[in-house]
Design a protein that fits this description.
Layout (H helix, E strand, L loop, with lengths): L2 H21 L14 H9 L11 H5 L2 H13 L9 H11 L4
């Protein structure tokens, strides 16, 4: 029995359980911008970015100011449609509800 191998299998199962919990009803809705994107979500699932981090992905620090401004403008226009919550907070709450954290 190889301990590293069984550990990696357990990690994969844990990541899958977290992702399924976040995909269940009610669906999580988050803004797709330079901070809350699929990379940030994947980093939260794998543990590469702890929920307490202010930077959840590599794209956030390397984004051009024009793109960041456009994302901010779009998010401001959408503020009346959805109740805005931080991606890390929403994922953390969902995982606590499902006792996966």
């Amino acid at each position: 029995k190889i301990p590293e191998f069984s550990h990696s299998v357990n990690i994969r199962n844990k990541i899958a359980q977290k992702a399924i919990a976040c995909a269940d009803e009610p669906h999580l809705i988050f803004d797709y911008d330079h901070r809350s994107n699929c990379e940030a979500f994947a980093n939260l699932m794998t543990g590469a970015a702890p929920p307490a981090d202010t930077v959840l992905g590599a794209q956030e620090g390397q984004i051009h100011c024009y793109i960041a401004g456009i994302c901010h403008l779009v998010n401001c226009l959408k503020v009346y449609r959805f109740r805005r919550r931080n991606l890390a907070y929403v994922v953390q709450q969902r995982l606590k509800e499902r006792e996966l954290q």
